[in-house]
Write a structure and sequence with these properties.
The complex is a heterodimer. Chain A is built from three helices and seven strands; from the N terminus they run H-E-E-H-E-E-E-E-H-E. By secondary structure, chain A is an alpha/beta fold. Chain A has a domain at 3-84: Beta Polymerase, domain 2 (2-Layer Sandwich). In chain A, the strands form two sheets. In chain A, strands 1-2-5-4-3 form a five-stranded mixed beta sheet. Chain B contains 15 helices and eight strands. In chain B, helix 4 packs antiparallel against helix 11, helix 5 (135-155) runs antiparallel to helix 6 and helix 6 packs antiparallel against helix 11. Classes of the chains: A alpha/beta, B alpha+beta. The interface between A and B is large, with 37 and 41 residues.
Chain lengths: 141, 376
């Protein structure tokens, strides 16, 4: 992790945990977009945006590459009663599609995404299947 | 209704909406491309995906860690070994499984052969798209079938191998088979690649269709999230096999194939160079292959510790990432595939405007799509 990235994370009050495989930084939801924008300014490259269902909340995971050989994740938590976050599409263009997928499969709404529509499922779908509460039916054939 | 507002062109007549696909011979699977055109020029474009969505990430959550390997074959179905390896590496890292030395060599060998067959499919497809119906397509199939025979002999299947296991590989390759592979890759294969190259970049029509079409700088492509050969054709040296060496890549002598022109023809040259480089690497791997076990003992009821890990690998199409999260049970909490082509395709709305409609397929061929991994 580069010193510039560390400085940005500290400025946004991120909780840094380097005990796992890759460093992870947890920020408050208010600081999500501002922190990502400052990380973009340090030269960090977008790798992926996705989510993990933690039961009570959906954890958003932004994977960034700071040097060609190292990566870290920026995370924030969206509680079930308020599944929304600011969009990063204006910061990292590929995040537009990544966020659409998180919206489609987890139901998190990204405010400011220019095209907040379903991407993998048909528009008529009413489910968010990657939530753990969505259970697969038994195969009947 | 797809959200596709028309931009229009100032001072011009009304623009037209043209749907290419989802059933169109040139889209390599079920991709639907909406193009707003003014005359022959693309004003704006939007790929519509999801027609091949099978819910693989959800299915993975209802199977055990081992059972999920079979699903990874069905992601990018022309780069099956790359997917299997990415998944196995992620789980092995999470669970702290040591892979025997010989298994790492075998995995690298098959993945590099897979890179060859995957690029051959690209070759067959891109030549078809620009009007070379038949000849280059069938030519590419000659070498591809030879390599598929090896897949079948090693794994028992041509297309869906399901060969890797957590902690190694399912079957060993004997020395007679390795010699056969080596003979083919060192003696016969380069001759065929010469032919492929002459048919593609040596062809006058291909050159006039591709030279100077779709020129993008490396900075633009990085900003749009493009990775892989499409990015390297613009001069970038990014290749995870060098940047974050895994398998036995740190012990092989190979170069990152780049080109500094950044047009569609450069993207062809990079892929053809990668085919040659992969064949060279395979020969090195066969020569350096150590003996020993090919599979570590891993419990069938594997329970990786609580946590998550994201592993990046270089698939034939770019940076393939697998994020796995465990809650300490025998089934994954989350299995996420960061598909390189998903993000490469998301750059299409930036890449296509101001190009001719006929150039769409040329630019599109430059990122080499495979719908199985985009839609998952």
């Amino acid at each position: 992790m580069t010193p510039e990235v560390r400085a940005v994370l500290a400025r946004h009050g991120a909780v840094l945990d380097e005990s796992g495989f890759d460093p992870r930084a947890d920020v408050a939801r208010d600081a999500w977009r501002a922190c990502a924008a400052d990380l973009h300014a340090t030269g960090a490259r977008f790798f992926d945006i996705t989510a993990i269902d933690r039961g009570e909340a959906v954890e958003l995971v932004l994977v960034l590459v700071d040097t060609p050989s190292t990566q870290f994740t920026l995370r924030t938590s969206c509680p079930n009663e308020s599944l929304r976050a600011e969009s990063l599409a204006g910061v990292f263009p590929p995040a537009e599609w990544g966020e659409r997928e998180v919206f489609d499969l987890f139901g998190v709404v990204f405010e400011g995404n220019p095209d907040m529509t379903r991407i993998l499922q048909p528009d008529s779908s009413t489910i968010h299947p990657l939530r753990r509460s969505f259970e697969l039916e038994e195969r009947t054939w | 209704m797809v959200n596709f507002p028309r931009k229009g062109v100032e001072g011009s007549t009304e623009t037209m909406l043209l749907n290419v696909g989802p059933q169109h011979p040139s889209t390599h699977g079920v991709l639907h491309m909406m193009c707003e055109i003014s005359g022959e020029t693309i004003v704006s474009a939007k790929p519509v995906i999801g027609y091949l969505h099978r819910g693989i990430e959800k299915l993975a959550e209802s199977r055990t860690w081992q059972q999920d390997i079979v699903l990874t074959d069905r992601l990018d179905y022309v780069a099956q070994f790359s997917n299997e390896w990415a998944y196995c590496r992620a789980v092995e890292r999470l669970a702290g499984i040591e892979v025997p030395e010989r298994a790492e060599w075998l995995r690298t060998l098959l993945v590099e052969m897979n890179r060859i067959t995957s690029h051959l499919i690209w070759y067959a497809g891109v030549t078809m798209d620009i009007g070379a119906l038949g000849t280059p397509f069938i030519y590419a199939w000659v070498a591809r079938e030879r390599i598929f025979d090896f897949y079948e002999a090693v794994t028992g299947a041509r297309v869906m191998p399901n060969w890797m296991r957590l902690g190694g590989v399912h079957t060993d390759i004997d020395s007679a088979m390795l010699k056969e592979m080596r003979d083919f890759l060192e003696r016969d294969f380069p001759v065929e690649v010469d032919e492929y190259e002459a048919l593609l970049v040596g062809n006058e029509i291909v050159q006039s269709r591709m030279k100077g079409i779709g020129v993008f700088s490396a900075e633009q492509l990085v900003e749009w999230g493009v990775t892989g050969p499409a990015l390297r054709a613009s001069g970038s040296e990014r290749d995870l096999r060098k940047d974050v060496p895994y398998g036995v890549y740190d012990r092989l002598d190979f170069r990152v194939c780049t080109d500094d022109v950044g047009d569609s023809l450069a993207r062809c040259r990079v892929r053809l160079a990668e085919i040659r480089e992969s064949a060279r690497m395979c020969v090195q791997i066969i020569d350096g292959m150590p003996g020993g076990d090919v599979r570590a003992k891993v419990s069938r009821a594997l329970k990786p510790p609580v946590g998550d890990v994201c592993v990046r690998t270089e698939s034939p199409r770019g940076e393939l990432g697998v994020l796995v999260a465990s809650d300490g049970t025998t089934k994954p909490l989350r299995f996420r595939v960061r598909s390189p082509i998903f993000y490469n395709l998301s750059a299409m709305p930036h890449m296509l405007p101001n190009h001719l409609l006929a150039d769409m397929l040329v630019i599109f061929g430059g990122i080499d799509t495979s719908m199985g991994e985009i839609d998952r």
